[in-house]
Every structure is written in C-alpha cells, then in structure tokens.
Amino acid sequence: MVDRVSAKDTDWDGVRLHVVTGKGGTGKTTVAAALALALAAGGRRVLLVEVEGRQGIAQLFDCPPLPYEERRVAVAPDGGDVYALAIDTEEALVEYLEMFYSLKRAGKAMSKLGVVDFVTTIAPGLRDVILTGKTSEAVRRKNKDGSFVYDAVVMDAPPTGRITKFLNVNDEVSGLAKVGPIRNHADTVMKVVRSPETAVHFVTLLEEMPVQETMDGIHDLHAVGLPVGGVFVNMEHPPLLPAETLAAAADGTLDVEEIVRGVKAAGLEQDAERIAAVLAAEATAHARRTALQEREKERLATVEQPRYTLPLLSDGMDLAGLYELAGALREQGAA
C-alpha cells in the first residue's frame, strides 16, 4: 500500500481514462469532479463524463442542466479546461444506430415510439455498451494533427456494487451478439478499458460498509483482469481533541467536574452542569468515531493501491470547496 502525503509527480502517468466508483453516499461524483479539475491544472484539457443521468456534475459546478453535448464547465488552476458530458442513453443509442447502421431517422422514430427504452430494458448489457462506448470514443478521439482531443477523461461511474459488470461489457454482450457491429464495438471498448491507459478508482468513507464494498470491488476487478486505480478516502474527520482526552472520552473517564469549571470560567455559570454533560457526550461520540476511522484505516492498509485522503469541508461543498479538494489531490500525487 502506498499512502501518498505529498508529491510533485503523479501516480497515474500514462492513464487517460479515470473511472471513479464508490458506494452510494461516499461522494464519488464530488471526487470525480475534483479529480477532473486536478488533472486539467496547468493547461490540460479534461472531459468529465456522467453516465447515471442525475445531473450531479451540473450541480457541483453551479451551471444549468447539461445537454447531450460536451460543454466547458470550469477553468482549472494555472489554466486548463474541464469539459463535461451527461450521457443520455436514448440520444447515445440514436447516435450509435447512425454510426453503425446509418439509421439516424429510424433511430429518432424509435425514440418517439419508446422502442429505445424497450430495447435497453430487455438488453441492459446494450445500455452499458452504449455508455462505456461513448466514453471510450472520447478517450480515443484525435485532432487533425494526431494529438488527442482530451488529455484525460474522467467517468463518474455507477456504484461499486455494479462497477465490474458495467465495465466488463464483453461478457454482457456475449448473449446479444457473437459477431457484427455490436460485438466489434464491445471489443473496441474493452481494448480501452483493459489497457494500461485506464484506472478504476474507488471512493470510500472511513466506515465499515463503504470500506468493505471497496475491498470487495477491488477483488472483483482483479478477478476479471480490469485495472484497479487508487482508493480515495473522502470526508475524513480530523481529531479535535488530544490523544489523552480522546482515550478518556472513549472509556468514560472524562473529568466532568473539570469541564464544569471550564464552562463556568467561560461565563456560563447558569446551567453549567447540563452544558458540561452535553459536551462530555459529544466528546465520547467524537472519540468513538475517531477510533472507528483508525480501525478502517488499518483495514485499508492491507490494500495494495495508492491511497489519498480528502478532508471533511467545514463550510460544506461548493465550487470553492471543489477547487480545494482538487488542490489536495494534486499535492498527494493523484493528478
């Protein structure tokens, strides 16, 4: 396990597709957006892709809902641009039909008739092929001079419990097509997904269930030969009390009378005992959470992946906070 604290280089030289997954509620969309900003810093061009249709990227960057087109949403530190794309499955399927079957008009008619929803419902593997295919196309896309349009692509991917199935589209389409455009398209996607240019990152909190899902997800990716990236520990709560005080709070031996004296010294003599009791209870809860975090850190230390830590932002998440997280990722060598 590599726990990067400070670095000038990046752990992911040569990686052009960063897939970000995590258990629901861990903040994977926030981490994906911060990673895109970090990767774009210094004059690079990065595409941030959303595949779940929640418009989470638009909310983070405080912009209107994204249409099905690539739009610039932020300027990175020291120059560089972050573009964003919210993939609409219906529009992507019409685009797919036009590209491989020259059926643009038919595709739009199918969309109006609801056939698109029907097709992707009975063949969910096709939906994943479309979503991953659009992303991998952006990774491969080049300018006329042969340079890549985007220096990197970041995908805000489905949750950890679905990520292996989502990315392993070759298996998903095996029951749909053995040959033909769908098969060929899936093979092209897998060449990108399985290549050294791809890394699948996991976002977790220092809590039992997210950490367990992260460890299970890493195991599952290794089992099918998909490239595992780093572990991003989000919203870590820093200890607010000295070690001795934390230990006393955890085992219930805090000196409540001393707290009462401190409350009175602060000019809160009336109801000092009640206030002291509340403070003692808060200290105990904080001590238990800190101990839980340390236990989960020890579990993550067994994982052979680079690990990055993002703090809990006291003022909540806004655009300024996103830039703060991007800076933290750069300092730790994640971009």
From TrEMBL:
The name this protein goes by in its record: Putative ATPase
Organism the protein comes from: Actinomadura macrotermitis
Coiled-coil residue spans: none
UniProt xrefs under SUPFAM superfamilies: P-loop containing nucleoside triphosphate hydrolases
InterPro entries assigned to the protein according to its UniProt record, in alphabetical order: ArsA/GET3_ATPase-like, ATPase_ArsA/GET3, P-loop_NTPase
A Pfam family of this chain: ArsA_ATPase
Residue span(s) of domain ArsA/GET3 Anion-transporting ATPase-like: 17-191
GO molecular function: ATP binding; ATP hydrolysis activity
